[in-house]
Amino acid sequence: MGDSVRSLAIIPDGNRREATRHGFPPITGHVWGLRKIREITEAAFERGVRQVTVWGASSLNLERRDKERDTLALAPPQRRTSVSAG
How many Cβ atoms sit within 10 Å of the Cβ of residue 15? Predict the structure, then answer.
């Protein structure tokens, strides 16, 4: 992966639906999604990917209830400002 892929984009979709489908509140789906983004990001960096871009929110996300919107805004995956290529 690291030899050919230098950049990765993640567009999370369906976290609310998945949580609701399993009987959990929508905010739980966002927490699951954030954990998965963190897992994917770490694996990508370990394999030599130098840049990961995550789509944070759409205009529809920003219209949601305060608590849900705050979860999206305040719990981003860990930010890495530099990655060793070695």
Answer: 20
Q: Give ∠ CA 33-12-32 in degrees, rounded to 5.
A: 5
Q: Is 3 a catalytic residue?
A: no
- 61 catalytic per annotation: yes
> Residue 27: in which H helix or E strand, if any?
helix 26-46
Are the C-beta atoms of residues 49 and 3 closer than 8 Å to each other? no
Catalytic-labelled residue, pool 13, 15, 66, 70: 13
pLDDT, tens digit, 9 for 90 and up, residues 58-79 = 667 667 666 666 666 555 544 4
pTM: 0.65
